[in-house]
Amino acid sequence: MVLAQSEEIPALRAAITNEADRIFVNTLVKSTLVALNQANLTENYSVLQALSSNAFKANNSEEELAEIFKAIREYGLDFAAIVEYPAVFTVEPTLDTQNNLRVVGYFETSPLVEFDLVFNLVDGRFLIDGLTVAIRPVSNETGS
Q: Could you tell me the CATH number of the domain that includes residue 96?
């Protein structure tokens, strides 16, 4: 197979190589999703913006973030309970050559909280550069 591409595909390496890394990545994911949850509950996305990379801010105003996450907000779910659960990674978290971190997975809550997050390392801090979150009902939920 021959593949034509315009950019070099960056080499990826494991982001979690020990328990301290696992704790850090779990904390980063949880704090990011808690910030989103609080933004949805208050309809104030300024803190989420403050935790983001310049590129993310340029592409996503507070008003645009409110629109992007409207469906989750309208679902009416306060998903702060994720802090009590470990993240389940569907793909092992990776770092590219520029130390951009990608984390994909979910929390085994009911409903499930799924995420696909990208962070840029800027001045020693991981800033949000990509934020995809979905809420998926668990198929065996009962009406009790």
A: 3.10.450
How far is Cα 129 from Cα 139, in angstroms, rounded to an integer? Answer: 31
Give the tens place of pLDDT for each residue, 39-50. Answer: 999 999 999 999
> Which domain, by its residues, includes 36?
18-136
The structural domain count of the chain equals 1
Q: Are strands 101-107 and 125-136 parallel, antiparallel or unpaired?
A: unpaired
Alpha-carbon distance 53 to 76, whole Å? 28
Q: 10-31 pLDDT, tens per residue? A: 689 999 999 999 999 999 999 9
